[in-house]
Structure formats: structure tokens, C-alpha cells
Amino acid sequence: MSFQVLTKSASKRLAMWTKFRSMSTVVGDMLKTDLANSRDALASSSKKGFEATKRQSVLQLARSLKSPRTDWTKEELREIYNTPLLELLHQAQLHHRDFHDPQEVQICTLLSIKTGGCTEDCKYCAQSSRYDTGLKAEKLIQLEDVVKAAVEAKENGATRFCMGAAWRDMKGRKSGIRKIGEMVKEVNKLGLETCVTLGMVDEEQAVTLKEAGLTAYNHNIDTSREHYPKVISTRTYDDRLQTIKNVQKSGLKACTGGILGLGETREDHIGFLFTLATMDSHPESLPINMLVPIRGTPMAEELTKKNSIKLEFDSVLRTVATARLVMPKSIIRLAAGRYTMKETEQFLCFMAGCNAIFSGKKMLTTMCNGWDEDKAMLEKWGLKPMKSFKKHSSNLSLV
Ligand code: SF4
């Protein structure tokens, strides 16, 4: 065998060996990639599994509570709010049944006792004197007109009568407070629960109203702390919280909620619920309003812009259901804007934990579903009006 032949055969073997090496490198790399992929997949699936367990545990924690908890974290609320929708609604409905009679709905009627001319700049409000909405400012109405409206509301099945005045606060309104105290006394004589909304009050004013026999004082936080400055500039979020504290300290029940559809994000819904769910004491009544844009207000104008955030119905349901799970004893009230909802949408809100409505001729300035229409709807669903003072006669956390 010549040297040349030897070299030829050696270089052939070398070429084969190199090819084999490169093939095994490719195979090895493929195996390595597969292994890495499987490891990632395993890690991601166990992460998902862990997240699912965590989600279940926050929901389960909420479901296991026998009395309201006030130290919720935003992360916990976010977790609940983002639960798959059917599961969220189902759990909220079960929780509702642990704390309330599922057949009962509180029917309230609202009356504007002093319309328009308010000095505040709430961007959505028809009653602010800063906007040209065509609303005529009026003086405080007479006692007999209030009594007449309350009698009519009672005859139509209302068990709570709410009176609203467009004022910034009650500073220097001694005679106003006295007159409203008279109204409260007269409405109470009819056996109706009473609620008023008069702007900011201090503790002394709240005590005066309590002594007149008032059941609840309405003062909303409107939205999340973060979104609030985009809606109102003439009073702070903390001013609002202070009024609610004053109300609760006086022994009055707080009726406190907000408005959805002010151009806020879903994260703002979580922030809004976080403020309510971490109050020293949850609101006895939690109104959920859906914005009815009023021509002439800055908010109505803003919402026509292309990039404005529109309220989606599933986020209304998520807000109601989360509220029901984390504030189980509160009466959740579908308030302004209900007339814009389809009956099926209202039904879903009840499934999510609502148990109160406003019914009558009008809200403060917007339309309201009428008594007859609501009676027919509730009858169809097998629901009945909640009796007055039922929720205040018992200290039991569970029904
Ligand atoms: S929402 Fe109330 S405080 Fe704000 S402008 Fe209207 S009436 Fe005044």
C-alpha cells in the first residue's frame, strides 16, 4: 500500500468522522433544545398551575369568610376581579346566598329636594353651575312635596326613600339641616328608611341628622384614587373619605359607591373597590352607577373622543361580583344608568350579587325605570321587595 493510498483512505475516514461529528452535534443541539423547551413548558405549566391554585385560594379565602374583612390587598382584589367570568359570577352568587336572602331586593326611590346650582366641578354632573346643561337651579322644596312623593313611593313598593340636594357641603346651612331633619322625621313616620345626600358634612352635622332619625347618608367616592383627579378638582378624594368617616362615626350608615364609565380602566375598578373594601367599616349600601353622559358636561365631550375608554359590560359584572365577594354584607344597588341596560344585563348583575334598585319617576336628573316596569320584572324573576329596616334589626353576619 502506497503512502498516497494510505493518505487517501485516512482522509476519507477523517471526512466521515467529521460528518458524523457534525451530525451528532446537530442531533445533540436538537436534543438540548428539546430538553430546554420541555423544561420551559414544565416550568410554565407549573407556574400556570400555581397561579390557578393561588387564584382559587383567594376566591376560596373570600368564600370562607363568615364576616367582612377590611384588610384586603389590591393584589387579592385584582386576582378576584380577573377570575374567569362564569366562575366569578358563580362564586359571587353563592356568597350572596350566604349573607342575604336571594329572593329579596331593596327598592328605593330618589327625590331631588334641591336641584342644580352646585359650585363643584364634577365633570359628569348636570347640576354643576360651571356647565351649560340647560338645567334650571331650584331652591329647597317644601316639606309637603317631600311627604307627597314619599307616600307615592311607599304605595308603589319602595322601602327606602332617598333625598338629594346639590350642595358642596353643609357649612353655614343650619336652617337647611333643620328643614331636612323635618323631612326625615316625616318620611320615617311612613315606615320608610331614609337616606340623604347633601355634599360634605362634619361629624356634628351628621349627628344632627342621625338624631332626626336618618338611616343612611350617601357620599360616593366616585372612582379610584388614581382616576379621581381626572374627574373632580374642587374637592379631594380624602375630603370625601373624611365625610364618610364623619358619617360612620355619628352612627349613620354610609351609602357609598361610585360611577362606572368615567373613562377609567379596569385597574381603576380594582382601585375603586380597594378603597371601599379597606374602609374601617364597609358601606352598608354600595351604589353602582353607570354614567349617563349629559350634553354640556366635559365628561360627555371627552367620551366622544376616539381614544377614550368605553365601559364594557363584563367589567360592570366583574365590579359587582368582586364587590359582593369582598364586601359580603353590603347592599349592592344598581343606581343611575340602569334604564340604559337590557333586562338580561340587569339579570346578570343580580346574579353577580346586586340586591337593590332605584325605582320611580326619576333619578336626580336622569331617567329611572318606573315602578310598574320594575314590579313586573321582579315578579317574573321570582324576587320580592326587602322590608324596611330588616338589615338593621340583626347583628348576625349570616342570614
Ligand atoms: S355630583 Fe354632587 S357635588 Fe358634584 S357637581 Fe353634582 S351635585 Fe355638585
TrEMBL record:
<dbReference type="InterPro" id="IPR010722">
    <property type="entry name" value="BATS_dom"/>
</dbReference>
<dbReference type="InterPro" id="IPR058240">
    <property type="entry name" value="rSAM_sf"/>
</dbReference>
<dbReference type="InterPro" id="IPR024177">
    <property type="entry name" value="Biotin_synthase"/>
</dbReference>
<feature type="domain" description="Radical SAM core">
    <location>
        <begin position="103"/>
        <end position="329"/>
    </location>
</feature>
<feature type="binding site">
    <location>
        <position position="122"/>
    </location>
    <ligand>
        <name>[4Fe-4S] cluster</name>
    </ligand>
</feature>
<feature type="binding site">
    <location>
        <position position="333"/>
    </location>
    <ligand>
        <name>[2Fe-2S] cluster</name>
    </ligand>
</feature>
<dbReference type="Pfam" id="PF04055">
    <property type="entry name" value="Radical_SAM"/>
</dbReference>
<protein>
    <recommendedName>
        <fullName>biotin synthase</fullName>
        <ecNumber>2.8.1.6</ecNumber>
    </recommendedName>
</protein>
<comment type="pathway">
    <text>Cofactor biosynthesis; biotin biosynthesis; biotin from 7,8-diaminononanoate: step 2/2.</text>
</comment>
<keyword id="KW-0479">Metal-binding</keyword>
<feature type="binding site">
    <location>
        <position position="118"/>
    </location>
    <ligand>
        <name>[4Fe-4S] cluster</name>
    </ligand>
</feature>
<keyword id="KW-0001">2Fe-2S</keyword>
<keyword id="KW-0411">Iron-sulfur</keyword>
<dbReference type="GO" id="GO:0051539">
    <property type="term" value="F:4 iron, 4 sulfur cluster binding"/>
</dbReference>
<dbReference type="GO" id="GO:0051537">
    <property type="term" value="F:2 iron, 2 sulfur cluster binding"/>
</dbReference>
<dbReference type="Pfam" id="PF06968">
    <property type="entry name" value="BATS"/>
</dbReference>
<dbReference type="InterPro" id="IPR013785">
    <property type="entry name" value="Aldolase_TIM"/>
</dbReference>
<dbReference type="GO" id="GO:0004076">
    <property type="term" value="F:biotin synthase activity"/>
</dbReference>
<feature type="binding site">
    <location>
        <position position="195"/>
    </location>
    <ligand>
        <name>[2Fe-2S] cluster</name>
    </ligand>
</feature>
<dbReference type="GO" id="GO:0005739">
    <property type="term" value="C:mitochondrion"/>
</dbReference>
<feature type="binding site">
    <location>
        <position position="255"/>
    </location>
    <ligand>
        <name>[2Fe-2S] cluster</name>
    </ligand>
</feature>
<dbReference type="GO" id="GO:0046872">
    <property type="term" value="F:metal ion binding"/>
</dbReference>
<dbReference type="InterPro" id="IPR002684">
    <property type="entry name" value="Biotin_synth/BioAB"/>
</dbReference>
<feature type="binding site">
    <location>
        <position position="125"/>
    </location>
    <ligand>
        <name>[4Fe-4S] cluster</name>
    </ligand>
</feature>
<keyword id="KW-0408">Iron</keyword>
<dbReference type="GO" id="GO:0009102">
    <property type="term" value="P:biotin biosynthetic process"/>
</dbReference>
<keyword id="KW-0808">Transferase</keyword>
<feature type="binding site">
    <location>
        <position position="162"/>
    </location>
    <ligand>
        <name>[2Fe-2S] cluster</name>
    </ligand>
</feature>
<keyword id="KW-0949">S-adenosyl-L-methionine</keyword>
<keyword id="KW-0093">Biotin biosynthesis</keyword>
<keyword id="KW-0004">4Fe-4S</keyword>
<comment type="similarity">
    <text>Belongs to the radical SAM superfamily. Biotin synthase family.</text>
</comment>
<dbReference type="InterPro" id="IPR006638">
    <property type="entry name" value="Elp3/MiaA/NifB-like_rSAM"/>
</dbReference>
<dbReference type="InterPro" id="IPR007197">
    <property type="entry name" value="rSAM"/>
</dbReference>
